[in-house]
Give the backbone structure.
Amino acid sequence: MSKLEGRVALITGAASGIGQGIAIAFAQEGAEVVVVDKSPETEARTTMDGVRRHGRKALFLQTDVTDDGSVTEMAANALQQFGRVDILVNNAGIFTESLFATMTTEEWDRVLNTNLRGAFLCTRALINQMIARGDGRVINIASQLGQIGGVSAVHYSASKAGLIGMTKALAREVSRYGVLVNAIAPGAIETPLLDSETEEWRSGKLAELPIGRFGRVDEVTPTAVLLASADGSYYVGQTLGPNGGDVML
């Protein structure tokens, strides 16, 4: 039997990048998948096709994770379609570069609202039905910058550090009810998010990596499958780091 056979997974920010990779990897392991993204469904076609290619159901829900009403509607639609959500992956996120001294309040709020508030809203909307069943997984996609910080990325680093803190605290609250909460803190991965960064930032980060290269999405997805499956049944409040040596703990 596949590792996620009979499970229902919901992944935010799943139209591209790491979210897309996780959605397809979960489908390959037998999960039905709810693909959530702020972009329209046309931009999630590759993800949807990838899920269906493995013979699994795919539901697309266009959602602004920063908006309470949008998230509430998303959760209701997912539960109406599948009856439950077993696995939530909070992957939706944005990255911008700005030195702290010149950072605008708007830019700070935009990054924190997407990366941290979004995870809070989505988790709050779905965790009670996990607790009621005594079973569920929440996987938060953080970043190695939430562990070590980054120049011109105080807002992003703070949002991801907050997500790691949220992971630990929530795990202490809900693990006794059978809901396991963990995080993944990838290093720099070749995705559209990395493509949006300046060449100066990319070259500087590349020079810092002991492995000497950026990572691939398929080097992150096995960690998500581990945490979502029975193989990850004793991981509680952990932050796993496929990061090419950028962080060594």
